[in-house]
């Protein structure tokens, strides 16, 4: 198996080293692991691509590249330049330092890389390690993802629905709970949740020269979420696995919306 790995924490991030171990175990002795990751941290860039300016790509070692761009840029660079003629069988993104469950999904560069791979028709899985008081006490905060990662990805590869015949292919979002590996209670297939009563925001800052800046700040990561969601599963000690796709349509609303839009469009501002 040929596996491409990337992340949004940067080429030197400890979580990427964990993912290299996971990928090497999955690829086997006859497989290949390629690394194309951002040269610098790209957290919070979501599915951004560097459309308006070029991206420099540097080869650091055989099958190891750093790109001065986003995680989605890295996937594009791999597919259309670095790995042309030897495309990956699988793209893995992560292991992110911090969870990408709940509302974090829409901001995540880790998710953005997996989403881009799916748009390109390649199976993809995003992996993230939830952090908390229990992981802060560990020598290795990635203990749960390091120990359980390869086996779980193997199960998803064997049993997952990849939506090959769909316009928008599926990819999978995996979050490991904020506990040590021996504290993981199991795995749950779970929908994306929403932490209630908390949001991203900004903290304004005035520099010594009088110029005004701001820092983006996240909400409380231990805020409650609906039972059965990815956030709730992680907080209960379970690994969450969530199938996702790029299609943002609310299909449940289409029928009702269509009924309300029947008839001729209004003319000159008058309803008909």
Automatic annotation (TrEMBL):
Catalysed reactions, as listed in the record: a ribonucleoside 5'-phosphate + H2O = a ribonucleoside + phosphate
Similarity remark: Belongs to the SurE nucleotidase family.
InterPro entries, alphabetized: SurE, SurE-like_Pase/nucleotidase, SurE-like_sf
A molecular function (GO) term: 3'-nucleotidase activity
The keyword Metal-binding is assigned to this record: yes
Residues binding a divalent metal cation, per UniProt: 8-9, 43, 96
Cofactor(s) the protein needs: a divalent metal cation
Protein's organism: Paracoccus fistulariae
Localization annotation: Cytoplasm
Protein name (Swiss-Prot/TrEMBL): 5'-nucleotidase SurE
Top-level EC class as recorded in UniProt: hydrolase
Cofactor note: Binds 1 divalent metal cation per subunit.
EC nos: 3.1.3.5
Entry keyword set: Cytoplasm, Hydrolase, Metal-binding, Nucleotide-binding
Domain Survival protein SurE-like phosphatase/nucleotidase: 3-196
Stated role: Nucleotidase that shows phosphatase activity on nucleoside 5'-monophosphates.
């Amino acid at each position: 198996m040929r596996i491409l790995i990337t992340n949004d924490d940067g080429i030197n991030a400890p979580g990427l080293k964990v993912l290299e171990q996971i990928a090497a175990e999955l690829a086997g002795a006859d497989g290949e692991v390629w690394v194309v990751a951002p040269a610098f941290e790209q957290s919070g860039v979501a599915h951004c691509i560097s459309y308006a300016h070029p991206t420099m790509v540097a080869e650091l070692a055989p099958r190891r590249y750093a790109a001065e761009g986003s995680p989605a840029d890295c996937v594009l660079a791999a597919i259309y330049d670095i790995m042309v003629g030897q495309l990956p069988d699988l793209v893995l993104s992560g292991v992110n330092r911090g969870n990408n469950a709940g509302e974090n999904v829409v901001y995540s560069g880790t998710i953005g890389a997996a989403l881009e791979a799916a748009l390109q028709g390649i199976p993809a899985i995003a992996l993230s390690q939830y952090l908390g008081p229990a992981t802060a006490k560990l020598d290795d905060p990635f203990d749960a993802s390091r120990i359980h990662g390869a086996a779980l990805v193997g199960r998803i590869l064997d049993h997952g629905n990849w939506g090959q015949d769909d316009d928008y292919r599926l990819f999978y979002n995996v979050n490991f709970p904020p506990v040590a590996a021996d504290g993981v209670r199991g795995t749950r297939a779970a929908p994306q949740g929403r932490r209630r009563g908390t949001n991203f925001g900004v903290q304004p800052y005035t520099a010594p020269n009088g110029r005004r800046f701001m820092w983006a700040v996240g909400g409380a990561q231990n805020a409650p979420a609906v039972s059965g969601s990815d956030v709730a599963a992680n907080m209960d000690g379970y690994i969450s696995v969530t199938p996702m796709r790029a299609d943002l349509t609310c299909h449940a609303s289409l029928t009702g919306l269509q009924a309300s839009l029947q008839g001729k469009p209004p003319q000159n501002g008058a309803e008909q």
